[in-house]
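Support request, priority: normal
Reporter: lab tech (M.K.)
Component: structure prediction queue

Hi team, I submitted a job for Type II toxin-antitoxin system RelE/ParE family toxin from Falsiroseomonas algicola yesterday, and the status page still shows it as pending. I've pasted the exact input below so you can check whether something in the sequence is tripping the parser. The sequence length should be 104 residues. Please let me know if I need to resubmit or if it's stuck on your end.
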Amino acid sequence: MTHRVVVAPEALDDLRDLYDATADASLPERALAYVEALRRHCLGLAEFPERGTRRDAIRPGLRTLGYRRRVTIAFQVTGSTVTILRLLYAGRALEGRAGQDEAD
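Reply from support: The job had stalled in the queue. We restarted it manually and it finished. Here are the results:
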């Protein structure tokens, strides 16, 4: 069964920040290629969403998946929808960033 992939606003912000950081350190063309490849990798979760490591201790149903040893994709599968919650890079910690309201 193919799932629908939804990207949370926080993950879109992460993607923009990743582009900016990569473009500053390298070339805009290289940054664009990298974030496009990451985006395609995220969309690939539509075909096989139950991969990655479960992180229920942080948030029930949370999974993480590495990308090129540089980015951690934090996502959740609910029914037929995969929600990309965060795209963490540069050593950013997952705790407190997984799309969970700070008041929880």
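Helices lie at 9-25, 28-43. Confidence is low (pLDDT under 50) at residues 100-104. Let us know if anything else looks off. Ticket resolved.
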